């Protein structure tokens, strides 16, 4: 999508939609929101919708940072303690590695 051709009102609407959709446990949309709208929010000359777009981009970035932290923590804990959890660790695994842990 070429955001250069989109009017500022539509950019604001699209940015808001991606921000709200991220709450449906889709943090990838927050990443897309930050990447797509960072330039419009912080690097372009001031326009009327820019302050709202900045708010959505900042909040999307914070939400993304939160989810990256949570998922990294969970993956680290799971990988470290999966074998010690016994059956529960096996039930939570998609594939069970072979060999001695």
Automatic annotation (TrEMBL):
It comes from the Eukaryota. Keywords: Membrane, Notch signaling pathway, Transmembrane, Transmembrane helix. One of its GO terms (cellular component) is Golgi cisterna membrane. Its main location: Golgi. InterPro entries: Gamma_Secretase_Asp_P_PEN2. It is found in: Golgi apparatus, Golgi stack membrane. It holds the Pfam family PEN-2. It is a multi-pass membrane protein. GO terms for biological process: Notch receptor processing; Notch signaling pathway. The chain crosses the membrane at residues 18-38, 59-81. Belongs to the PEN-2 family. This is Gamma-secretase subunit PEN-2.
């Amino acid at each position: 999508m070429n955001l250069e051709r989109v009017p500022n009102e539509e950019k604001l609407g699209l940015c808001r939609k991606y921000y709200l959709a991220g709450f449906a446990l889709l943090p990838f949309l927050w990443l897309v929101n930050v990447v797509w709208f960072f330039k419009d929010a912080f690097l372009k000359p001031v326009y009327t919708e820019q302050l709202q777009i900045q708010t959505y981009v900042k909040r999307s970035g914070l939400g993304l940072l939160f989810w990256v932290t949570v998922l990294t923590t969970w993956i680290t804990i799971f990988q470290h303690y999966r074998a010690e959890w016994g059956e529960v660790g096996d039930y939570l695994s998609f594939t069970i590695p072979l060999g001695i842990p």
